[in-house]
Design a protein that fits this description.
Layout: E1 6-11, H1 17-26, E2 29-34, H2 48-57, E3 61-64, H3 66-69, H4 87-95, H5 99-117, E4 121-126, H6 136-145, E5 149-153, E6 159-161, E7 169-171, E8 174-176
Parallel strand pairs: 1-4, 1-5, 2-3, 2-4
Antiparallel strand pairs: 5-6, 7-8
Length: 186
């Protein structure tokens, strides 16, 4: 992956502080955007203040966009995102249609653009190691549909290019995941 319209994602998982910082450095991360709704962890070094401080010492910027982009959303009763059978993903997909999400995504893009112009990469971070089991997956869908290249940084430093989720659609600037229509046999 090259720089430009590129954003990486990473899950902090249970990394030791120094290992996580080395993981970020190894990928050339200059800015970490925290997309946890509650920027706390049972691993104290991943709580918001200690994390921001250790990143600052390492020369990596830190921003928190969990209010706009954080997970743990409840699905709407009339959710049209029926391709997701998991309530957490369906709830987050519903959230993606709200102005709050759009504003957070715009801020993420702005921050990544500024970081890219100064020669560094941007990564958005949550706790889950596997991007396929995290709301980073849906944020990545929105970014890819908006023209960004998205890569997922693995715990071992590997980089996997994002694959769009099944049934994802973009209409009128809104990402959705409707259940595919089945054809009728006649």
């Amino acid at each position: 992956m090259t720089s430009g319209l590129e954003i990486l994602t990473v899950g902090h998982s249970n990394h030791e502080e120094r290992d996580f910082i080395e993981l970020l450095r190894g990928a050339g991360i200059g800015l970490l955007i925290d997309v946890r709704a509650n920027p706390r962890s049972r691993y104290q070094h991943f709580n918001r203040s200690p994390l921001a401080a250790s990143l600052r010492v390492a020369g990596i910027g830190y921003e928190q966009l969990g209010e706009q982009l954080g997970g743990r959303r409840t699905p709407a009763p009339d959710s049209g995102n029926d391709s997701w059978t998991d309530d957490a993903f369906r709830g987050y997909a519903d959230h993606m249609a709200r102005p709050e999400f759009g504003a957070g995504l715009a801020e993420l893009r702005r921050l990544a653009s500024e970081r890219g112009a100064s020669g560094g990469r941007t990564a958005l971070m949550c706790a889950e190691a596997d991007w396929r089991r995290c709301h980073r997956r849906l944020i990545a869908d929105a970014l890819v549909l908006g023209g960004y290249r998205v890569g997922h940084l693995g715990p071992d430093g590997s980089l996997a290019e994002h694959e769009l989720s099944d049934a994802v659609q973009l209409a009128g600037g809104v990402v959705s995941y409707p259940k595919p229509q089945t054809s009728l046999e006649i």
